[in-house]
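Preliminary data (for renewal application), iron/sulfur cluster complex.
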Amino acid sequence: MSAGSEQRGERDGYPFTFRCRRSGNCCARPGGFVRVGPADVTAIAEHLGLSEAGVRSRFLSADGSRLRDGVGGRCVFLQDGAQAGCGIYPVRPERCRTWPFWPELLESDEARAQAERLCPGIEPRALGVP
Ligand code: SF4
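Predicted structure:
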């Protein structure tokens, strides 16, 4: 969840490095969704010049826990273009900012394998090897 980013790096304990290739795949995962919290909603509202109620009604799921799907199940904020872009990149939700360094990708080999197939920016590395 990082379309439009230049983010890159590695984190202790994660068996991969990451450099965003701007594929947009993470923002258009089949069956994927973006959880949001109160701080995310506040930041998006300020960025868009909307009330938080306006953001909730226009861009969040009915229970307010995630971003609403856009066309074809893509993220509602994913913009088209030669390179995929995030329409709220400066205030993208915490889940997007931290992709792919998610705890579940450490806990599940299958989840990590799926992420590696999805995202061309993830490169496996052997831990403990400089
Ligand atoms: S909010 Fe932006 S970075 Fe996050 S999934 Fe949507 S388009 Fe991608």
